Amino acid sequence: MSNFNENAVKARYGKTPSSEEQALGYLKALKVIIGADGVVDPAELNALRKGMKRLGASADLTQAIEDFDVQGVSLESVLPNLTPGGKRARLLIRDAIELASADGTYAQEEKDAVKRAASLLGVEDDTVRSLQSLVELEHAVKRLRKALL
Fold first, then answer.
1. What pTM, to 2 d.p., does this model score?
2. Is residue 65 part of a domain?
3. Is the residue at 38 inside a domain?
4. For residues 143 and 104, what is the distance between their CA atoms, to the nearest angstrom?
5. pLDDT digits (tens, 9 = 90+) for 21-36
6. How many domains does the chain fold into?
């Protein structure tokens, strides 16, 4: 996978995507979800950029995602084929929640898009709620660390 640092991707997701198309679909799905409220907030886009940078995404791939217009795009058309309810499906939902709340607001439309993605990916509602709690806890830990250190 020339568009990513394979070691970083394996460390985060357990294995590399089966194709460049699958990786692109994953990132496009994230952008569709963060744009579900009608706008891709700059803070959300910046969080997506940071995530791609941590994975060693190429400049071309990063630019392709930044240029991707989410208006009128359905989740069904971009979601990658992942094992229903599997680790990468759950990670996509977790990543989506993290990115959608990067602007300080997890809008109802974004929550609905996450729920729709979860349904399409075979991720149970209880798991989605747990992932949302995990993201909230991670944010609380960051705030506490900043306050104390």
1. 0.91
2. yes
3. yes
4. 13
5. 888 999 999 999 999 9
6. 1
